[in-house]
Each structure stands twice: as structure tokens, then as C-alpha cells.
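Quick one:
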Amino acid sequence: MLVVFSISLQSKASPIVIRSQDWAIPRSAARLLSFPPLVLAVGQLRVHPDAHLRIHYPGGDEGTLWVNELQSWLVALGVSSEQMELIPGSSGQAVIEIEVVSPNGKSVIKNNTGK
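Output:
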């Protein structure tokens, strides 16, 4: 039983993480096109065009403003707003977590090291 549990932990998907201090950079289209978390998320959507982004964001006004800005930038970078699912309640007040999810609800990114 313990072996099965450890195997399932190893294959668990890790979200793409954006920390507030990393997002605090001056933003422009050129800069965000090279911002590693967005490069990974948008790149995975291109590889898996039927997938969507599940975006977990901090609650409250600040989290809502942050996710709305992120969503606007993603749309400007070519991601349809219909490909985004915004979910309040990330694992921390200073992070947004993005999962690239297939139509069957499974993450397409395994063991992401971008944390």
C-alpha cells in the first residue's frame, strides 16, 4: 500500500506557480512573452489545443485584481478567455497556481519544477 501511495505522489502534477514578487516586474508584451511561467502555460496550450487553464488565485480584492490582470495579459498573448477557469483560493496569498488541464480533467504537466 505504501509503495502505491509513493508512486502516485511521484506522478502527481505540479502547478505552474507565479509568485507575487516575480509578477512585480514592469510588464510589457515583450517581457511577458519571455516570463517562464507564461511561456510554459501558453506553450502547453499550443501542444494541447483542447486543454484549458485552471487558475487558482488568492482570495480578496488584491487576488481578484491580480488574476484579472493576468487574464487580460493571457488574452493579449492569444489565449481565449474561454480557455481559462478562474478559481479563488490558491495555496498562499502571494501565489497564483496554473494547471493546464485536458478535457478529461487531468493535468497535462507532470512534475513541473517551476515552483
